[in-house]
Structures are given as C-alpha cells and as structure tokens.
Write a structure and sequence with these properties.
With 186 residues, this protein is an all-alpha fold. 51% of the residues lie in helices and 0% in strands. InterPro entries: RNaseH_sf.
Length: 186
C-alpha cells in the first residue's frame, strides 16, 4: 500500500498474501510452475501446485472484474468472451471479412482520414441483416461440429455437406471420419 512506512507502493509478494489469509503451508510453495504450466485436473492436488495458482483460485481474486469488464459495464455494453483463435465461432469476423472485401473492391483512392472513414462505414453498411444471420448460422454449425467431436476441417466439410439441414445428423463424427478417410489420397 502507498501508506506503508518502509515500502510504500511496493507489491507485498504472493507468500505474504497467502500468510495474511492463513494459508501458511501454501506460502512455502514455489511462486509459479515451470513456464506457467500448472498440472491438469488429474494431478494429486491441482489447485495447490504453486502460489500463483492458489491465489488465482481465492474467491476475492477469482471474482474480480477485469478493467475491460468494468469499463463495458459502466457504459452499459454487454461483453462476451469467445475462445481465442477460433474465428469460425465468431460471426463478427465474417462481417469484417465481408466489409473488408467490399472496401478493397472500392476503386476510390482516399487522401484524407475523413474520406477513409466514410468508405469504411459505407463498406460496413453493405453487410445485410440476412448475411449476418447466415454468418451466425455458420458459427452455430461449427459449434455443433465441435460439440460432436469434429475437428476444424471435418466441421467445415460437414457444414458444406449439410448446409440445408437444421442440425447435423446423429453420429456425424463417425460419418465424417469415414468420408475424410475415403477422400484422402493414397
């Protein structure tokens, strides 16, 4: 804390925080696991491998809002976290792709920021409500495929094959596995 007599503004340290919470045994653990890779849930005691993991699972640390969450809440904006690196699960990515394609096809050369902004807004306006609904349906298809156990390529192929169906048929994973094996060059 800033009013500390000898160390104002300095971090106490994880061991000190654990001692203050009465977690004396955990304070003797290493600060963090090697390369920040804590053992999985099958470990002997997966929540007590390092000080960082123990603190991370303390209720007052776990329930803390991020800066982004508090900022969005203050402005009345809903925040949804999506899995990293899975743009196929996020319909907004397809909207951006559509708008970027339209923007690139625009032959106008922009000389000012205002002109560029107008062109970007015009490109975004070309994304129709019907397209957005289709992008959402495609994302839902990928989610269904992943839920059924398909990988990315199989899920994309299944989305193309079953595009007129409301959902994937039962046993889609086995069917796609057979189809992908059949299509592989020997």
């Amino acid at each position: 804390p800033d009013d500390h007599p000898t160390h104002p503004g300095e971090f106490k340290g994880m061991a000190q925080l654990l001692h203050e919470r009465g977690l004396h045994d955990e304070a003797n653990l290493p600060a963090q696991c090697k390369n920040f890779h804590c053992p999985g849930p099958k470990a002997k005691d997966p929540l007590k491998c390092c000080c960082r993991r123990v603190l991370f699972n303390q209720p007052d640390f776990a329930d803390t809002e991020t800066l982004l969450e508090s900022l969005c809440k203050a402005h009345g904006i809903g925040l949804i976290y999506l899995p990293k690196f899975h743009c196929e699960l996020n319909p907004i990515e397809r909207c951006w792709c559509h708008a970027k394609r339209v923007y690139r096809q625009n032959p106008k050369v922009t000389s000012t920021d205002e002109e560029m902004e107008r062109n970007v807004i015009a490109a975004l306006d070309t994304v129709s409500l019907l397209s957005i609904r289709r992008f959402c349906n495609t994302a839902i298809r990928f989610m269904d495929g992943y839920r059924e156990g398909l990988d990315g390529a199989s899920s994309a192929y299944a989305a193309k094959i079953y595009s007129s169906h409301r959902r994937y048929p039962e046993g889609i994973a086995a069917k796609m596995e057979q189809e992908m094996a059949r299509r592989k060059p020997r």
